[in-house]
Amino acid sequence: MRKIRTVSFVAAAAALALTASACSSSSGGAAAKNNASAGPVNLTWWHNGTTDPVKSLWAQAASDYTAAHPNVKFTVDPIQNEQFTTKVPAALAGGNPPDIYQQWGGGQEASQITSGKVMDLTSAVSSWIGQLGPVAQGWQVNGKQYGIPYDQHVVGFWYRKDLFAQAGITAPPTTMDELNADVAKLKTKNIAPIAIGSKDRWPDAFYWDYFAVRECSTDVLKQASKDLKLSDPCWTKAGDDVKAFLATNPFQTGFLGTPAQQGVGSSAGMIAAGKAAMELQGDWELPTMEGLLPNGTFKSQMGWFPFPAVTGGQGDPTVALGGGDGFSCTTGAGASCVDFLKYLASTAVQDKIASQGIALPANPASASKLTDPNLQAISSYAGKAPYIQMYFDTAFPTNVGQSLDNAVADFFAGKGTPQTIVQSVTNAGSGGK
Length: 433
Prior knowledge:
D-Maltodextrin-Binding Protein, domain 2, 12 strands, two-stranded antiparallel ribbon, 2 domains, alpha/beta
């Protein structure tokens, strides 16, 4: 259930490059070649790019692909990110699902393939999927490929250098003790320390997720995604850490009613406008902010740092929390859908995603094209991380992930306990027993 991801697009030069890429996009096998010479194909495409620049990027990508494959046309339907949680399961359960839809992999993908309507891409992509490296494994279920990523993400703290300077903070915090001290310093200057979009609930989960990553060993993290039981004491300790952090009142006034990415009053908008000093979000937040304040003047003040270490935690402090964005094809889509996903994963398109300094490309061959210093830092951090834990609401099956997010959001609103969060996962994973 990952959020609005925005990929930059410079209309003139990028359009030419994307057109060239579409023209050179080879088919994914004999089936794709046959499809290319067959009758007209119309692909319905659901994605979460409801605003520019990503909305224009995907529109251009569809147009360019059609120019190179005249028999293939698209009906593009941008859908607000939070709606995918309900719209995709309903569509897969119905008789007319989209041909291509936004896919975040993990347990959500595993839940979706039980419908029998998500295409097994394994054989069709075998000749080229290797170019994406390990990142593609997040879109596999039992060794089979059911989705293709087009970018990858890491969550950390975005911060305003100017507001840190006003509060006398000379360097980003590396431990929770230092972060708590910085929160106190910002308050003395009447600066909102951290913005959060709790109205959308999912941003709350990032805090519990990261405290769990810091409290639990990597082996415990991996096992949880398999057995859906949070029996190790570290999981409850993560909730205790959240409780202690909330007690410092680190967020803006009215945070429970603040959206994450919609409008200048969102948590993303607050950071862009300098109304809060920090926000725990993914690398996608920079383009999200640009969509809200297009002049981009805030970018020179932006910095990024990893989630701090937790004293006494059993987790490796260099382990990251992240995921990525991708697409799946449904079973009625045909070979043109697979070929289009190959086009989106091509280095020409991936280079544009990276070179505009907006997203971390799924294709590692394009990582060298990153120009934004913050994204370079995030990419370097991700490359050195011994393990990247997929967001738990995505790593777990859909119903379990939703139960976790709801329990954490309720906890942020003053309901429940650290044990309640743990129990919500266990109950959902066992079918409520």
